[in-house]
Amino acid sequence: MTRHPTNSLLIRPLALGVRLTANLTAGHLLIQLISTATITLFTTIPVVSLLTLLILLLLTILEVAVAIIQAYVFVLLLSLYLQEN
C-alpha cells in the first residue's frame, strides 16, 4: 500500500482541529463544573463557595492563556504543513 501526500495534507489540519477542539472543550467543562459547585455551595457553605470562586477565577485566567497558546500552535503548525506542500 502506498501513502499518498494528499491524504497527509488533509489529515494533518483535521487532527490539529480535533486537538484544539478537545483542549478547549475540556477547559470549558471544568469551568462549568466548578461554577456549578460554587453556586451550589453558596447557600450552604459560603466560605467554601468563595474559595471555589477564587479557584474559578484563576482557572479562567489559565483557560485564556491555554486558548492563546493553542491558537498560536495551531496557526504555526498549519502554516508549516502548508509550506511543506
From TrEMBL:
Catalytic reactions of this protein: H(+)(in) = H(+)(out)
Question: How does the entry describe its membrane topology?
Answer: Multi-pass membrane protein
Question: What SUPFAM superfamilies does this protein map onto?
Answer: F1F0 ATP synthase subunit A
Q: Which Gene Ontology CC terms are recorded? A: proton-transporting ATP synthase complex
GO molecular function annotation: proton-transporting ATP synthase activity, rotational mechanism
Q: Which UniProt keywords apply?
A: ATP synthesis, CF(0), Hydrogen ion transport, Ion transport, Membrane, Transmembrane, Transmembrane helix, Transport
KW Nucleotide-binding (keyword) present: no
Compartment(s) where it occurs, according to its Swiss-Prot or TrEMBL record = Membrane
For this protein, the parts annotated as crossing the membrane are 20-45, 51-82
Q: Which InterPro entries match?
A: ATP_synth_F0_asu, ATP_synth_F0_asu_AS, ATP_synth_F0_asu_bact/mt, F0_ATP_A_sf
Chief subcellular location equals membrane
Q: Which family does it belong to?
A: Belongs to the ATPase A chain family.
Subunit structure, interactors included: Component of the ATP synthase complex composed at least of ATP5F1A/subunit alpha, ATP5F1B/subunit beta, ATP5MC1/subunit c (homooctomer), MT-ATP6/subunit a, MT-ATP8/subunit 8, ATP5ME/subunit e, ATP5MF/subunit f, ATP5MG/subunit g, ATP5MK/subunit k, ATP5MJ/subunit j, ATP5F1C/subunit gamma, ATP5F1D/subunit delta, ATP5F1E/subunit epsilon, ATP5PF/subunit F6, ATP5PB/subunit b, ATP5PD/subunit d, ATP5PO/subunit OSCP.
Put simply, this protein is called ATP synthase F(0) complex subunit a
